[in-house]
Design brief:
It holds the Pfam family Sec1. This protein is of the alpha/beta class. Helices cover about 45% and strands about 15% of the residues. It is built from 25 helices and 16 strands. α12 packs antiparallel against α13. About 10% of the residues have low confidence.
Length: about 600
């Protein structure tokens, strides 16, 4: 199970400070309101708030009652009527009078928002809560709506929030020396951050994070649509991890009730299996159970003094490990049952064929069967999108036929969803005469053209095309399938997809860090529709000294969400290169979350 470490990786910065900063500022705002107060919390903010300031902390600062705002009228009973409120997302904060009956409103807004109008007596304050550390190397902005708002609706209100989050990290853990990025949103977030840096004062200090990489989610839409097979990703796909916490149902806990479990590096059992391919997990857990039994069995030959030491020093730890081990064994068994029931191997085989570009007609038949049997609607949509992305769009006759079958199976109300998917380039039909080879030669011609810097109309029309095959060949994303892939000893990041595919997002990060920029990747960036940048932001990067620890810590910011599989791939890459990655994301995503955000009934 242990992966070889090429060189000692640097220590990660301590991100608990971010949590303390957010909590202290919240407490300060609450203390601005003397006396008892009721707190009204937008549903989406419940879990993040609990991670930062739990009920006990809030009660200590005179919070009387907590209400989850679900737009049903509530009557407040506190001394000064309504005294605190978080609204998130902030598009509907002005609906507040419909929800709460009171004369005065004190509204604490949880992210930057411009209130330039008001129809009632309202006092506002801003709680600068941008970043929630979910683990030692994962920080989330907890903005699941970012993907739809920006990439589908073109709403740029969160760009400044992302810039502010970057600014906070730069202020506390910087200064950063190099910033790389790709994507229009990344560029805007970078510019927003630079503006904030120029407005503020700079203090010289020892940097803890040296380099930053920003990436838009729509640069790589294939990766989040693949089935996850590393343990943490699979747990997220099946049980949904929310804010670093998962609820295991009774068939996992072997009892009559569900249990909420925090999944992070503090859970020693989970920490050893989280990045492993699922096929390796059961063997590891069995071995762990045998070792635990051996540790318990030591008691049999002990005298009283030894037993006393054992009870005071070891027993508590063993019991805790035993509890966690049973939960993860239960989760593994439950996932195995679910996945064999759904012909999971058959599903993965189809996915791998799509990624490799083999037996496409068989894949289409499989997807048709999936739709006609009315297996999960989101699953069918996922397969259609994967087919479209990997094939650079569907042939018109396939598109029409599959769309008709889908609407017949799952309901005509999904017509608008197809329009959303098309707009985002997730599910499109090829234009007449625009076969893969024609498109590739067109792109090739543009690349060789001296005036390629000027994006021609011909290339702009490909803006929403994925060019997946050409990118796959150029970056070697799909390893040759005739070679055996040993999942016990992964040789590259493809292990996260059973050796079938190296995630494009992670491969780009690897290549840019290796080349210290985008030089030599011009063809790739053109196929990805550009907006790439590499900037020396501070002085640290330019001196020729041996790389300091901070230079070996890379902060990767995903705008639009990132998956646990990508985080596992970056951890693997870090171990190989002797560097550490910190992942900052607008939210943790997976195929279901991403596609659900595209549904037309998403309100």
């Amino acid at each position: 199970m242990a992966h070889s470490v090429r060189r000692d990786a640097p220590e990660l910065p301590d991100f608990s400070l971010l949590k303390r900063l957010a909590r202290d500022q919240l407490i300060y705002l609450l203390e601005q309101l003397p006396g008892r107060k009721d707190l009204f919390i937008e549903a989406d903010l419940m879990s993040p708030l609990d991670r930062i300031a739990n009920v006990t902390t809030l009660k200590q600062h005179d919070v009387d009652k907590l209400y989850k705002v679900e737009h049903k009228p509530i009557v407040s009973t506190s001394d000064q009527m309504v005294r605190g409120c978080f609204l998130y997302p902030l598009t509907n904060w002005f609906l507040f009078p419909d929800v709460v009956n009171a004369d005065k409103y004190y509204v604490i807004l949880s992210v930057y928002f411009d209130i330039s109008y008001s129809y009632f007596d309202v006092t506002t304050d801003e709680w600068s809560f941008y970043l929630l550390p979910l683990d030692d190397d994962i920080i989330s902005l907890e903005l699941p709506e970012f993907f739809r708002d920006y990439f589908l609706e073109g709403d740029q209100r969160w760009v400044r929030t992302a810039g502010s989050a970057l600014h906070l990290l730069h202020s506390v853990y910087g200064p950063f020396s190099k910033v790389y990025g790709i994507g229009r949103c990344s560029k805007m977030a970078y510019e927003s951050w630079r503006e904030q840096v120029e407005e503020g004062e700079q203090r010289a200090r020892q940097a803890e994070i040296g380099n930053v990489f920003l990436i838009d989610r729509d640069v790589d839409l294939v990766t989040p649509l693949c089935s996850q097979v590393v343990y943490e990703g699979l747990v997220d796909d099946i049980f949904r991890i929310k804010c670093g916490c998962v609820e295991f149902c009774p068939d996992v806990t072997s009892s009559d009730k569900s249990i909420k479990v925090m999944l992070n590096s503090q859970d020693k059992v989970f920490n050893e299996i989280r990045n492993e391919h699922f096929s390796q997990v059961f063997g590891f857990l069995s071995q762990k159970a045998r070792n635990l039994q051996t540790a318990y069995d030591k008691r049999s030959g002990m005298n009283i003094k030894q037993m006393k030491t054992f009870v005071s020093e070891e027993l508590k730890g063993l019991k805790q490990e035993h509890r966690l081990l049973s939960l993860h064994i239960g989760a593994s068994e439950s996932m195995m049952k679910k996945k064999t029931k759904q012909d999971f191997q058959e599903l993965l085989k189809t996915e791998h064929s799509l990624l490799e570009g083999f037996e496409i007609r068989e894949c289409i038949s499989y997807i048709e069967e999936h739709i006609n049997r009315q297996v999960s609607m989101v699953e069918s949509m996922r397969l259609l999108c994967l087919l479209s992305l990997t094939e650079n769009g569907l042939l018109p006759k396939d598109y029409r036929s599959l769309k008709a079958q889908f609407l017949q199976s799952y309901g005509i109300e999904h017509l608008l969803t197809f329009s959303n998917l098309k707009q985002l380039g997730l599910l499109v039909e090829q234009q007449p005469g625009e076969t893969l080879t024609v498109m590739e030669s067109r792109v090739g011609k543009l690349v060789n053209d001296k005036t390629a810097g000027k994006l021609t109309d011909a290339f702009s029309s490909l803006a929403k095309k994925s060019n997946f095959r050409a990118l796959g060949r150029r970056l070697n994303l799909v390893p040759k399938s005739d070679e055996e892939y040993d999942l016990r000893v992964p040789r590259d990041m493809a292990y996260i997809f059973s050796g079938a595919y190296i995630p494009l997002s992670c491969k780009l990060i690897e290549q840019v860090l290796e080349r210290d920029g985008w030089t030599g990747l011009e063809e790739v960036t053109r196929m990805l529709n550009g907006h790439e940048f590499a900037v020396t932001a501070g002085s640290n990067g330019s001196d020729a000294r041996v790389k300091t620890d901070s230079q070996r810590i890379i902060l990767v910011m995903f705008l639009g969400g990132c998956t646990f599989s990508e985080i596992s791939a970056l951890r693997f890459l870090g171990r190989e290169k002797g560097i550490k990655f910190i992942v900052v994301t607008t939210a943790i995503t997976n195929s279901a979350r991403l596609l659900e955000s595209m549904l037309d009934n998403h309100a």
